[in-house]
Every structure is written in C-alpha cells, then in structure tokens.
Design brief:
CATH architecture: Alpha-Beta Complex
Strand content: 35-45%
Catalytic activity: 8-oxo-dGTP + H2O = 8-oxo-dGMP + diphosphate + H(+)
Shape: globular
Number of strands: 7
Domain Nudix hydrolase: 3-128
CATH class: Alpha Beta
Helix content: 10-25%
Structural class: alpha+beta
Bound molecules: 8-OXO-2'-deoxyguanosine-5'-triphosphate
Cofactor: Mg(2+)
Organism: Gracilibacillus salinarum
Oligomer: single chain
Number of domains: 1
Distance between the termini: 45 Å
CATH superfamily: Nucleoside Triphosphate Pyrophosphohydrolase
Radius of gyration: 14 Å
Order of helices and strands: EEEEHEEEH
Protein name: 8-oxo-dGTP diphosphatase
Length: 136
C-alpha cells in the first residue's frame, strides 16, 4: 500500500497580488518543480502550527497561517499526498530560500507560467480562477 502524507502549504500573497512560489531543488523529491512552501504535518500539530513551523524552518520568517483555501488528495507513483493549502501572512522577516533552489513572487493570474508539482495544479487553477472572477 502506498504511504499517505498530509502536507500543508502556504499561499502567501503580498500587497501587489503576487504569490510566493518556491522551486524544489534538484536533490529533493519531485525535483525542479514549483510548489507552495510548507511540509508534512507532524503528530500532535494542527494545520496552522505545522505550517508556521515549516515556514520558519524553510524560509526563516514568521507567518500567521489562516484558513484552508484548498484541500486535495493526489496520487503520485510512490505515495499519496493530502495537500492542504492555507492562506498565510508574513508577520516578521523576509523569506529566504534555505532548502529551495529559488523563491519568486508571481502575479496570481500568471501562476501557471511555471511547472508545478502535479499535486498543486488544482489549487493553482483555483487561485487563477479567483483572480479572473475578481477582475471581471
Ligand atoms: N511543501 C510542499 N510539498 C509539496 C507540495 N506539493 C507536493 O506535491 N509536495 C510534496 C513534496 C514532498 O514530497 C512532500 C512534502 O514534503 P516535505 O517538504 O515535508 O519534505 P521533503 O521535501 O524533504 O520530502 P521528502 O523528500 O522527505 O519526501 O509533499 C507543495 O505545494 N508544498
């Protein structure tokens, strides 16, 4: 049976309607694909606690994790991921890539201009549709 992992990911938006996107390094699993920063939920943590910890570890900044905006299960060849995207705001510091190959801020409507980890595609499409609706 495939292992199932529960992963929280941060959708961090700045005041120019840009979203923080992180490029997985070549030596990580799912290499060279873009993702929302975050990671696995550990025993005893709620979603917000897990995300705030992961972002401090990965990006060396403090966020406040807010509500769930997307919850989706995707089956990879080797594992099943329950990817939960939460809205989040930076409360102190500036994100620094300590594990990722690169961090970029992408305009929300252009999120599909990079190649996302397959599990992220529905969340990305939902975010793009939200901007289209907001601007129509
Ligand atoms: N953080 C994050 N991980 C994602 C996303 N989409 C997606 O498929 N993943 C996958 C990549 C990893 O296999 C897993 C998250 O694991 P992790 O960030 O805690 O740790 P990791 O890269 O060291 O993972 P691993 O090599 O130990 O499997 O979820 C996403 O948007 N954000």
């Amino acid at each position: 049976m495939k292992k199932k992992v529960k992963v929280v990911a941060a959708v961090i938006e700045n005041n120019q309607e840009e979203v923080l996107c992180a490029l997985r390094a070549h030596d990580m699993s799912i290499p060279n694909k873009w993702e929302f920063p975050g990671g696995k939920v550990e025993e005893g943590e709620n979603l917000q606690q897990a995300l705030e910890r992961e972002i401090q570890e990965e990006l060396r900044c403090d966020i406040k994790a807010e509500n769930v905006i997307y919850d989706h299960t995707h089956e990879y060849d080797s594992f099943i991921i329950n990817l939960i995207a939460l809205e989040a705001n930076i409360v102190s510091g500036t994100p620094v890539a300590t594990e990722h190959a690169k961090l970029i801020w992408l305009p929300k409507e252009n999120l599909d201009s990079v190649i996302w980890a397959p599990a992220d595609i529905p969340a990305v499409e939902t975010l793009i549709k939200q901007t289209e609706r907001a601007h129509s």
